[in-house]
Amino acid sequence: MSSEEWIETTTGNRISKLAQIYGSNSISINDHSTVNSYVLLQGDVPLLQQDESQTHTIKLGKYTYIGSNCQVIPPVLKKTHHGPIRIGSFTIIGADSIIKSASIGNRVLIEPNCTLLDLSIIYDCCLIRKGTIIPSKMIIPPFSEVKGVPGVDFEIKELNSSYKKIIELEAKNLHYLG
């Protein structure tokens, strides 16, 4: 990774110069997060209810890693209005994923090519396997492993509690080692 390809902030964030970030004033990125090339952060959408407490359309926790070609778009609430999206700390989003969830917890690993549809909620310490589609408004409980496509082979299993530390370490490694 050469410095010509990245913007590095004083809080340790690394953002690819090839990322597409719209509405940057409405996006909060906490310390040590990475936004890779060709990521779309769509922060310029109208919120359904906007008050002083809802100033950000997209909020990323610390050590969040977003893989190449991902789209992070706040969930649609009503035709042209959106709700905010919150992505917790130590969360990894694999390449080519589409994220429209209302909330993703801490220590979540989303493998490549996943789609999380409008208003879905992923609680803490979850593993979303490659190619999985999470339907709109679905709630995934903590410590879950999810895989498949609804109506075809969708499955939710319990995830071993040791993944809590494993996902956190992987998020830190991705930030520091790429």
UniProtKB/TrEMBL annotation:
Pfam entry (one): DCTN5
Keyword list, A-Z: Cytoplasm, Cytoskeleton
Highest taxon listed in the record's lineage: Eukaryota
One GO cellular component, as annotated: dynactin complex
Compartments in which it is found: Cytoplasm, Cytoskeleton
Segments crossing the lipid bilayer: none
Record family assignment: Belongs to the dynactin subunits 5/6 family. Dynactin subunit 5 subfamily.
Protein's recorded name: Dynactin subunit 5
Organismal lineage: Eukaryota, Fungi, Dikarya, Ascomycota, Saccharomycotina
